[in-house]
Amino acid sequence: MGIKKITINIIITLFLVISGANVFAQSGDTVYFQWGTKPNRDKFYLNTVEHPINKNLALPVTDSTEDKWNTGLESMVLLQYRSVFIDKRIHYAVKLMDKQSIDFQLTLLETLYSLYPTEFIKKMREVLKHATDDKVFAIASEYLYRENSICPNEIEAAAIKLNPDYKNDDVLKMLIVSKENDHLTQKMLQDIFNKKFLRGNTVIYSIQRKNRDYTGIAIIRDGKGNFIVDNNKDILAIPQFARSLTNLPFYISDGNTPQGIFRMHGTDVSQSSFIGPTPDIQLRMPFETTVRDFINVFYIKDSSWSIDQYKKLLPASWQDYQPIFQTYYASKIGRTEIIAHGTAMDPEYYKTKIYYPYTPSEGCLCTKEIWSKDDGKRMISDQQILINALKATGNENGYFVVIEIDDQQKPVNLDEILPYIKN
After folding, report:
1. Residues with Cβ < 8 Å from 283, sequence gap 6 or more?
2. Could you give the CA distance from residue 140 to residue 124 in angstroms, rounded to a whole number?
3. Same structural domain, 160 and 104
4. In total, how many domains does the chain have?
5. Longest distance between any two alpha carbons in the chain, whole Å
6. Is the pLDDT of residue 388 over 70?
7. How many Å apart are CA 236 and CA 368, to the nearest integer?
């Protein structure tokens, strides 16, 4: 579990102890989640603004207060919170950040990337010039790149100054290769939806846009190569959101969900109050497990991972397509615990966003769930639909494949995929 996940869960736990909320409850097929009620959500919001945000960020920035500042900054991103007072404190922290720890710098940079997308371009150029840490350098580069204030060639030239051997630094390597203009072909899409791809395995495809502000869809194929259908005999397509709170790229710990292949290991129920009681799908990336487990071939001896081992799972037409290797590199860099889950987060935090009422996550794949503001009853659950469809395949283990099809500025629709599917 990442540091930020631990921090946010501590905030939630403290609130629950204070409020005495009975979070999980179930009666037959009806699921209740008291965290979803309006009084509890309002209390959490007000307490978070008052304590981790306003109180912690009122402190001076010193070595001894960094942890409190980090918690406040992470809470700001969670709630997408700004105020006049907080803006002044952020400007104060930015002036001092170069003297603080790398962990503090990263947390502050993620906050700036998420909540202050244009105000600190000059500062980011300074960071780029003087950075000694690859992730600090990468986030500053991404900030400038998003605002068209730097081009890929400039990033690469600066990376060489930071580390002449930058191609062997996976963070810097992914920073640079992610700027390449890769396109899917019709043949590639036909090949990846073909029954021969990962033959004999349950496969969930999560089809996304490059712009993760737009929702994707999940479709499910059983071990015989047949896609699960709905009551109208149409392929079941479940909206799924793959955007992180920061909206940073996949190679940053709290970034968006990586593209590529995940190993699927059944379901579980999270104890996180932001995920809720609906079962989630457990996923593993290559470096989170053994080669034998991931490739799922009994005669493979456990050995060190290599890109060629991962490549064996791919159709030939995909083996030179860099984005499909994101799960490989993200896990090599150190990302862990990406799952496919529902949500109990309050969508009202994001009511001004184009993705509302969907809620971002810590980099997982998230489906929409709606809870009664009065009693916490689960009213809508795309996650339960996804879980039921997975169970209908008869095998909850298999593979989960995330791909971005293009950069259209709209949610993904099943009709875009159907021409490539031969059921």
Report:
1. 262, 263, 264, 265, 338, 339, 340, 400
2. 5
3. yes
4. 2
5. 62
6. yes
7. 16
Sequence-distant (6+) residues with CB within 8 A of 6 are: none
Residue 218: CATH number of its domain: 2.40.440.10
Q: Give yes or no: residues 34 and 121 share one domain.
A: yes
Flag whether the pTM goes above 0.70. Answer: yes
Same domain, 204 and 294: yes
Residue pair 305/286 in contact by the 8 Å Cβ criterion: yes
Same domain as 213, residue 143: no
In this structure, the answer to whether residues 162 and 192 fall within a common structural domain is no
CA distance 156 to 159: 5
Q: Which two tokens stand for residue 347?
A: 């969508």
How does pLDDT run across 58-91, given as a tens digit for each residue? 999 999 999 999 999 999 999 999 999 999 999 9
Q: Which of 118, 48, 47 is nearest to 77 (CA)?
A: 48
DSSP 354-415: TTTTS--BSSSEE--EEE-TTT-BEEEEHHHHHHHHHHHTT-SEEEEEEEEEE--SS---GG
* C-alpha separations of 253 from 88, 380, 390 in Å: 27, 30, 28
Extract the tokens encoding 89.
């404190």
Per-residue pLDDT reduced to its tens digit, 286-308: 999 999 999 976 667 767 899 99
Give the β-pairing of 340-341 and 365-366: parallel
What's the CA gap between 38 and 46, in Å, rounded?
A: 12
Whether residue 357 is preceded by a cis peptide bond, meaning omega within 30 degrees of 0, is yes
Listed residues 118, 142, 177: the one ending a domain: 177
Question: By residue range, what is the domain housing residue 384?
Answer: 186-420
As a whole number of angstroms, the distance between CA 206 and CA 261 comes to 10
With 0-12 CB in 10 A as exposed, 13-18 as middle and 19+ as buried, what is 203? buried
Give the per-residue pLDDT at 6: 45
Give the domain-ending residue among 136, 152, 177. Answer: 177
Q: Are residues 233 and 268 in the same domain?
A: yes
